[in-house]
Design brief:
Layout lengths: L27 E3 L19 E3 L5 E11 L4 E8 L5 E5 L4 E3 L2 E3 L22 H17 L10
Parallel strand pairs: 2-7
Antiparallel strand pairs: 1-3, 2-3, 3-4, 4-5, 6-7
């Protein structure tokens, strides 16, 4: 149900093109392609650390951070899962600490099913919608217990 596009996993069919800056550059890109950006020395740099799901199981390893060049902030964490596949984790679903990255919305095993991007160094508006919807859907559908009433 996390990929069905319904309920908390629903998304809008936005244009399947990358958003661009005022200057016409791709807006959201990994740090590896923009050497002028970096992580502040005051903040933990999660690259190389494990990413843990709500069950405490590691779902992958942080490989890069994706920056929004217009807003000058990090939008995504690039996570390498089993088999070398890379997926994006929205920053608003992640808690970064010196011990790693924690995610409450999905389980460690569910990182492998996160929708991917067509291109390794850009994300389209539609891809962003699907990625956000997957993590949003996990808040209700990641486990059978989450789907039941609390009372």
């Amino acid at each position: 149900p996390m990929l069905d596009g319904v309920g908390p996993g629903s998304y809008a069919n936005r244009a399947d093109v990358a958003d661009v800056t005022y200057e016409g550059d791709i807006k959201i890109v990994p740090l590896r392609v923009v050497p002028d950006f970096g992580v502040s020395r005051k903040d933990p740099d999660p690259r190389g650390q494990a990413v843990y799901g709500a069950d405490g199981v590691a779902g992958g390893t942080v490989r890069d951070l994706w920056v929004d060049r217009s807003e000058m902030l990090f939008r995504y964490i690039e996570v390498e899962v089993a088999g070398g596949k890379r997926v994006l984790l929205p920053m608003n679903f992640a808690k970064v600490s010196a011990r790693g990255v924690a995610v409450k919305s999905i389980l460690g095993s569910q990182f492998a099913q996160v929708p991917t991007t067509r291109h390794a160094e850009q994300v389209t508006l539609l891809e962003e919608e699907k990625i956000m919807a997957y993590y949003g859907g996990g808040t209700l559908y990641a486990t059978p217990a989450r789907q039941e009433p609390l009372l």
